[in-house]
Each structure stands twice: as structure tokens, then as C-alpha cells.
């Protein structure tokens, strides 16, 4: 498994503008799996901009309540879960690390850069009793998976953690796309050695630009990560916005309902256009299709940007944010397929 090349991501709209010659404001960007109706950011007081961030602002406690993590779970707010993805591999001696394939490629890229040996865990290996786990020193899991949307029961992840920990290993769980349904997150079990949980504000709240996330784990791991990242790992304005967004439970309840409805609508739209069944989360749909490359280009020629994956051939669609955008996608799919 190779991770030598820096991974590409959705949201590369400027590249699409140059490649297709379509002005930026004419694009419908569905290449990222974030809430198209973001949490309404309030005015930020002037002193937040003028003062250095302070760790004792109560944000860690708010994050623990949001994640339903226990009091013994140590919490480190970070500049998006990406900051932790890059730094965590450097805390461990080189070992054999399992990585889901397909999956968010930044994980494999940074673990390999830190000298670890990557072991790809493909979907067909998840059937049965997981004998492959015995060959690993550590496992990085994405739950639900990005881009496929595969979500495994927390009980299974806890079993993996128990087996790994019994021989000194560890489990990292990336929950950037986890939903709010009870029992979907492993965060309530954080705080024990050998378990690290990554959370993100950018996806559900539609605030990818502020770079806000959190790491939950045991004291030793979180302290080592904090030392590696140094002071002020997250900006003051980002901390301010994260605190208020996480405490806005009313908005979260409405958003969760609207996103679930929109994801189901997108699933029906793709199937209704003869493209087949999709998987995914409340924030995106993943569509395996042998003709994915052609469909991706056909949509791009019409100013609609989606993610294209080569192995296996597939597309990932984010959610339109308005009725005109839904209609535009519907018309484009009818024309190109």
C-alpha cells in the first residue's frame, strides 16, 4: 500500500475553475461532505481577536458533554482533526498499523511518513472473526468511513481495542462524520489507555474553514500530543465559535433531522436516475459505478463538482443546499446519464 503522494481532497474549486474554464460563481460544489446550511456564526467580540487563546475557557468540558465522554477522558481542542492526524503518528515507535481501504487517505499518508508499516484493511476482510487483527500493533479506523459511509457497531470497535491493548497496541477512531444517534460513537468509552477518538466541528456544523476539532484519550497520549502541537493549538476565534456551536442543542436537533432527510433524498435521486444504490452518511452519498470517470467529467462540464475515486471507481456526492441546486443536479444527472 503506497501513501507517498500527498492525498487530494474535495473542495478544490479553484483547480476546477482552471481546468474547465467555468467562472467560480457558476459552480455547484458538491465535492465536500459538509452541511450546506452552516451553523449561524455570531459576531465575535473584539477582545477574542486581540487576546491569545486561553486553555481554561471551559471548551474541553463542553466538548466532553457534546461527545458524551466521561470525566476521566482527557480532551485537547485542535485545529481540525487533521492536526491530530498529522501529529499522532510521531508519538509512536514504528509499528504495523492497519488502515481501512478505501478510506480518508491522510491517515495512511502520515503514518507512513512517520516510518510505520501500513496494512490495508479492505471491506471483505471485515467478514468473520477478524483474524487479521492479530498481525497489527495498531489500528486506525474511520467510523463512519469516508468515503464509503460504512459504520461499524461500537461493540465491535471496543472488542478490537481490547484485543490490541492486551498486547500493548492501540486503536485510533476518526469520528469526523459520526451522527448524533445514540450508540453511534465510541467517545463515551474514551479515557482508557490505548484508545484515541478524533472529532470534528467542520462537517456537521458546516464550518470547515475555521479548523476546529478535538482529541479524546488518556492523559499520557493527550499530554504528549499537546506538547508536540505546542501552545495555542487552536485560535481564539475558533474556540469561541466552537463553544457556542456545541452548546446550541436546538440548532443541532433541527440540523440532524434536515440532513437525514436530505441524504435520503439524494439516495433516491441517484437511484431514480438509474445510477444504482448508494451508501453514505447524513452528509454525503457514495456511489460505486463502473462509469464514474465519465459521469464526473460530464457533471464538471455542467459546472457541478463531485469527488471521483478510481479504485474502486466511484463518486461521492455532497448535499445540495437549496431547491434550485437540487433541480440543477437533477437536470444534470438526467442529461449526462
Structure, described:
By secondary structure, the chain is an alpha/beta fold. It is 36% helix and 17% strand. The protein has two domains: 13-38 and 250-336, Aspartate Aminotransferase, domain 1 (Alpha-Beta Complex); 52-247, Aspartate Aminotransferase, domain 2 (3-Layer(aba) Sandwich). The chain has helices at residues 13-20, 46-50, 59-67, 81-87, 105-113, 154-166, 219-229, 236-247, 249-272, 292-301, 323-336, and strands at 28-29, 74-78, 96-100, 117-121, 138-142, 170-174, 195-200, 213-217, 279-281, 284-288, 304-305, 307-309, 314-318. The longest helix has 24 residues, at 249-272. The mean pLDDT is 94.
Major sheet details: 7 strands, mixed
CATH C-level label of the largest domain: Alpha Beta
Widest sheet, order of strands: 2-8-7-6-5-3-4
Indicate the low-confidence ranges by residue numbers. none
- Give the DSSP E fraction (strand runs of 2 or more residues): 15-25%
Number of helices: 11
Write the CATH architecture name of the largest domain.
3-Layer(aba) Sandwich
Helix content: 25-40%
The CATH superfamily of the largest domain is known as: Type I PLP-dependent aspartate aminotransferase-like (Major domain)
Structural class: alpha/beta
Rg from alpha-carbon coordinates: 20 Å
How does the overall form come out from the CA principal axes?
Answer: globular
Distance between the termini: 33 Å
Output the CATH topology of the largest domain. Aspartate Aminotransferase, domain 2
- Give the rounded overall mean pLDDT: 94
Number of structurally distinct domains: 2
The H/E string reads HEHHEHEHEEHEEEHHHEEHEEEH
Q: How many extended strands?
A: 13
